[in-house]
Amino acid sequence: MRIVTRPDFDGIVCAVLLYAAENIDTPVKWVSPNDMQKCRVDIRRGDIIANLPYNEKCSLWFDHHFSNKLRHAVPGSFRIAPSAAGIIFEYYRNRLTHDYADLVRETDKIDAAQLTVDEIRHPERYPYILLSMTIHPHLEHEKPYWNRLVGLLRSRTIDEVLDDTEVRKRCDEAISENKTYRALLQKYTATRRHVAITDFRPLGQTPYGNRFLVYSMFPETSVNVKIGYEEADRETVVVKVGHSILNRTCNVNVGQMLSYFEGGGHKGAGACRFRHDLSNQYLPQIIDILMENDPDGGLVAKTQRSGHDRRRCGDRRKSRSAAWSESGKTERRKGSDRRTAGEQRAGWERTDRWQSRPVVE
After folding, report:
1. Most buried of 25, 84, 174, 201 (most Cβ within 10 A)?
2. What does the pLDDT look like over 313-345, one tens digit per residue?
3. What is the pTM of this model?
């Protein structure tokens, strides 16, 4: 049995609770939602997936993201909630011998971005918020630190966790990092009516800092679009979209919108990753949808698809399109294949994320 989750604060607390409730002695398998969506993760029977898209090979699944909702029940628990950790806490409440109520309550608050202006501007005054800012999901070499936090939070109070030498060092770094981040946000953010667009691509390497800070700096906006590169080679663009937690007038379901652009998330926040050559197609559509701020028809109209079609724009197949080409007995995609097994075209099977072939009877 393995715990499979993402390396953010919610994912770390999910791991804490699952270790406490189940007889698990294997290390956490840390993966990104994007890798799960694109079938790059080896999921095995017995695995418990938390805070990530579902995989049919797992034995239990816990999640709360709108874009990951299934049309059928599976073992585990899913509901739209502030955090996946809160769902696991309720599921295993009778098995837990340690009191994790405060930890889960703070995780709900952080993952749902239910913060005050003072908590945004001065995270150093709030232990759980500051701790969450020491986690950098994009840095794979930090796995030992993620595992360290899981071990510390399983048995120690938040004050004892912050007294740990490694944790204290990272908290100090986070406070310094946030000061630099404020200046970069000011320089690379432009506003278009109620949309704040932060484009860090000119920097090459995307800076990291307090993800809520932009809302206090541009209070007239109701949603932020942050654009950057995943790697220094600039091959993959990462777009993160979030409703302002101070000006709650954005009507667009972010998770639903980004599921059409190779991503997903919650109603109020989400992310997507795509090849850099798709930027001129995807970014104007995303920004136009947010500018329109229509909770009903804007999304479908902009992506030109039915409300039930969650495939990305270049992946539609109502008729033969330029996104597809056939050669002999192989049908090749010009874009990534994100379909699940139940969505395969009749008579074809997927061989990898770029092509499919006729099924041999």
Report:
1. 84
2. 334 333 333 333 344 444 444 444 444 444 445
3. 0.70
